[in-house]
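Colleagues,

Please find the record for the two-part complex below.
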Amino acid sequence: MSSMNNLSESGKSGMNLKETELTLGLPGEPRVGKACMKRVFSETVDLELGNSGKKDSSGSGSSMKKESATSRGKLVGWPPVRAHRKNIMTVKSGKYVKVGVDGAPYLRKVDLELYNSYEQFLSALEGLFTCFKIRTVLDEKKLMDPVNGVEYVPTYEDKDGDWMLVGDVPWKMFAESCKRVRLMTRSEAIGLAPRPETKCSSSSS
Amino acid sequence: MSDLTPTTLRNNVPLSPDEVLEIALESVLEFLPCQRDRNAFSLVNKSWNRIEAETRFEVVIGNCYSISPQRVVNRFKAIKSVVLKGKPRFADFSLLPPDWGARFSPWVVVLSGAYRGLEKLCLKRMYVSNDDLVVVANTFVGFKEIRLVCCEGFGTSGLAVLAGKCRQLRVLELIEDEVADDEEDWISFFPGGATCLESLMFDCVECPLNFNALEKLVARSPSLKKLRVNRYVSLGQLRHLMIIAPQLTHLGTGSYGPLEDLEDPLPANELRDHVSSAFAASKSLVCLSGFREIVPYFLPAVYPVCANLTSLNLSYANILVEEFKQVISHCHKLQILWVLDLISDGGLVAVAATCKDLQELRVFPMDTIEDNAGPVSDVGLHAIAEGCKKLQSILFFCQQMTNAAVISMSINCPDLIVFRLCIIGRYRPDHSTGEPMDEGFGAIVKNCKKLTRLAVSGLLTDRAFSYIGQYGKLLRTLSVAFAGDSDMGLTYVLEGCPKLEKLEIRDSPFGDIALRSGMHQYHNMRFLWMSTCKVTRQGCREIARQIPGVIVEIFNWNQVGEEGENSDLVDTLYMYRSLEGPRADAPRFVNIL
């Protein structure tokens, strides 16, 4: 699985410390991107944790380390990335939420800011978790596993910590209040707002 | 009467030997387009100089302050193409105060008077105003090509004038410019009827677009081969453009996703299929870029073209490692690849496995904060070294590196011309041995016999510079930051590298002694930049006094007009050779010695 590959690759870099490094996310989650890597070392400059010992062969090293950390990227023109590129990359910081599916061994992270509607979002989920497709049943879009016909109900945890059914509120409101998403199998979704009874059980159109 | 020797008669009058020589030389010059060669040719004697001047059609001016526009038009009478560069490269990293100079205005005034037949203009790091563009549009009747690279000072109203007035325009390329939003719908200004457009690139224009107008423009531009749109074009809209222009060879995709206020009528999976079909129909596509706000779900739509791609720029694409690997696995013909370090060492391994013809690789950092580890490292560099043996140019940002990986690249990639390694963490040694990075860079200059451009980083002692001076005989451009121990470092370079043209240094402990050691060299160089080093005002004054033909500018970035504590130390020294005296347009904070 891809997440496993990532773990073994980070081990290959020789930094055994990396495996024990704190990251945001559940075990098995891919360790890529700044969203997952904690910048604890540069932020706890006073304690001089971690690799400060390795860094300097000259005495000035540790003070340099302090200086670089406290400036925290405020050093003018360093690294030498064109301002144009830096600005473009920071325009979209993204709103990443974890997405889990019942039965899948690992979660994914999805940037809600990439989508403007529920339909786009569900399509994206379809792309991420290839085990199911979007089917339209009686004008409603549902996520279903074509192999066993199991239907998944998208739910989410909102700012208040409550688990809600995806789709009730306008998209933008959902995107703002959503903290994480879980695709529950229909049997588990008992208790959420009831769906209208469907006469035919098979997928269509 | 047979014409056995047609060139020895003109209007039936025999030519003098000099005239015959002239004609012969002119024929030879036809085969000497390269400016370097022509410069050499023109130095032989006065008449060769004159002949060369009369037959030169393109002039390249690497520093707009090295020569006045008047002198250029006096020497060359029939120029059709001008390439003009302004600010030094460190301006890109906000190290040059604004309003420093490099204005195009004084040039456009003179050029418009002398070269009515000017067809091509390429400007890099210059300040170009809307008025300048108006002059260009109004003056040069047969104007065909304009390329603006890293420029600023103009906006969409200037573009509108160019579009509207330059009827022969075939190339309009805007590359990494700052373009002001004058709220002019510039695309609509292109005249109706078929256009000559071959290349239209505006991916850097951060202004909304009239898509309707763009669509119609593309539809009536049958010669269009290169199209790079900005991020205000959605994926659905891009698809329409691709269907209208299946002949494109270069495509910049714009956002490659939905636009915030534009709902796409198609469901996502259908859109993806349609885009995929459009790519499949683009049989000539070899260069792909854009992906400004990519929705990763749509990335697989590019698979049909991957096998043909020679150039791929994903350096704005926020995608996962697996998503990248899927794409790259199809790209066997790739020669140029720009990516974000998000692809991680695993992604680089995938590149090394597939892209055996890779010539240029650039790995940009997603995160620019100094950290102990990042997603790419010596592991990825090593993989690239072993897999991409035809590599000629590399730019690599990382948080940590080893000498071994760099040495490996120096041995495996003998064709390297450009090696730029940026270890973001300053003063970082080899993370596995704790040693400085001297040996790695030493191996590069020693083993890569074609190397002309080098950028160094990490913990470096004077030894690294002694290697550069010893082996870097072809080196033309050198970039140094946070490196070296003493004046000896810079001295090694100035004494050892005879072909050095551009030397840019920041935050390194080189002072007046080092500066003095290069006195024999400075008139051979285009420029020397030293910021936050240890040179003093006095040291700079000495250089200015002793070397004619070199302009010495010093300025203090932070203290405009003030005297700081160490008022003797100079913040920034920018020195360049010039045929002119001190420039008249220097702002207050610039001191020309």
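Chain A touches chain B through 58 residues (CB under 8 Å).

Comments are welcome before we finalize the supplementary table.
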